[in-house]
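Hello,

I think I submitted the S-adenosyl-L-homocysteine job twice by accident. Can you confirm which output corresponds to this input? Input:
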Amino acid sequence: MSDDPLDAKDAAGTTPPRLVIEIITLFPEVFTSFLQASLLGKAVASGLITVERTNPRDFAPGRHRQVDDSPYGGGPGMVLRPEPVAAAIDDVENRRGRAHRLLLAPSGRLFDQKCAADLATRGRIMLICGRYEGVDERIAELYADESVSIGDYVLAGGEVAAAAVIEATARLVPGVLGCGESVVEESFSGGRLEFPQWTRPPLFRGLGVPEVLLSGNHAEVARWRRREALQRTLSRRPDLIERCPLTEEERAMLADLERI
Ligand code: SAH
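Support: Only one job matched these inputs. Its output is below.
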């Protein structure tokens, strides 16, 4: 199959999606416009990616369908009860098969580009969104293959975190990005930040663009960009440099930059 999303569109319904995303959420409507916009919208419309949303509230017993309760041991707020979440997961998997299950949680492993690349190859993933004070710990123990956090801050719910995971993962699924866009040279892909970019006009509010980019010398441009990427990573994210795989030339560039 070609990498052109339009070709995939022709094949919608005849070929299975490359990634199925199951979302377990009390607020499925949060995802509606997000899943319709831009490249992700196209990937969903063409059938390259399928997204299913399931609400634990539909599996909660009683007239009020209560999904939360106060925490054992006391304290403020409410905790999501385990039964409706478990019942939602079981129902989804009984009908559509086992997924790689992620629980969104501030205490989880920090989600990064490597994690996104791994998820993009899994075929079927499930994102379990918490709310209130979080989800009863037994869901993490019994159901989650891993817990992931999108950063060291606390959101009101897992939906925005799940959206970040979906967007970062979906664009790595072959065919989702247009041919013109590359995931090879961008930030984090080689363990470093991306080089800075400019476009027209050549002069904007007194600021020009680096001469070398106008030179037409592709080898020089490539070398300059490698150096800029290293420079940027060194100054903004020195923690990445330590783990960054470097060529001979880049090691020399880095030594040079560190002397400045
Ligand atoms: N009391 C919890 C926070 C609960 S926030 C604590 O202190 O750890 C409610 C829900 O929002 C969580 O269950 C989780 O699903 C989601 N959430 C909040 N912050 C998040 C983050 N940084 N990454 C991923 N999910 C997050």
